[in-house]
Amino acid sequence: MLKIKYGNTNTFYIPGNNGGLLVDTDYAGNINSFFKAIKQQGIEVKDISYVLATHWHPDHMGLIGELMEMGVKLLLIDVQKEYVHSSDYIFERDRIPYVPVREENARLITCKESRVFLKEIGISGEIISTPSHSPDSVTLLLDDHSCFVGDLVAKQHEPAFEADEKMRCAIRYDWENIIYRGANRIYFAHWPEIVF
């Protein structure tokens, strides 16, 4: 796994036997910074077979449309389908160069299908729904116990939601689900990694 940092969002590249998987991108408008960052890691765009957004907020999916135009395929989880264009208006409002995602060209799978799909590209793991951050949030868990959670609230911050019992229960449920599956090295989009 390689961590690629070229903006405010941590992006991760996971090599597979048949190309690699990119987890998250940053905001739209910084494709040149992305090219520079992957070059420093020895990665070329042709090495990226698929891109997965942990959720469809603008700082996680801003470059996906451009990458798709370059041949990278979008891995779209069914719980995310209705949110693909939820950030388009932000880029339009802020007049940021942005290539809209064409979800009809995506590989659409369910979480239950994720293990089989990932195995096809040479990655051992699964994708689960973790909706406590947003309804479209997903987490990638690898069989080596690495876990990519996007913007999921860190487990140790759960007590901060004491006044919001519904949110606190949702956060707790997501973490129990992740830990049950054996994850012990957690990679966040905006925070340093945590090892349990």
Structural write-up:
- The chain is α/β, with parallel strands linked by helices.
- The protein contains six helices and eleven strands.
- It has helices spanning 31-40, 58-61, 64-69, 88-93, 114-120, 165-180; strands at residues 2-4, 11-16, 19-23, 48-52, 73-77, 107-109, 125-129, 138-142, 146-150, 185-188, 194-195.
- The strands form two sheets. A six-stranded mixed beta sheet has the order 1-2-3-4-5-6. Strands 7-8-9-10-11 form a five-stranded mixed beta sheet.
- Strand 9, helix 6 and strand 10 form a beta-alpha-beta unit.
- The longest helix has 16 residues, at 165-180.
- It is globular and about 45 Å long.
Provide a brief overview of the structure.
With 196 residues, the chain is α/β, with parallel strands linked by helices.
Structural class: alpha/beta
Beta fraction of the residues? 15-25%
User: Which quaternary structure do these chains form?
Assistant: single chain
Count the DSSP helices. Answer: 6
- Residue runs with pLDDT of under 50 for 5 or more positions: none
- Trace the largest sheet across and list its strands: 1-2-3-4-5-6
| Major sheet attributes | 6 strands, mixed
Return the average pLDDT rounded to an integer. Answer: 95
Q: Helix share of residues?
A: 25-40%
Q: H/E element string?
A: EEEHEHHEHEHEEEHEE
Q: Which geometry do the CA atoms define? A: globular
Radius of gyration, in Å, reads 16 Å
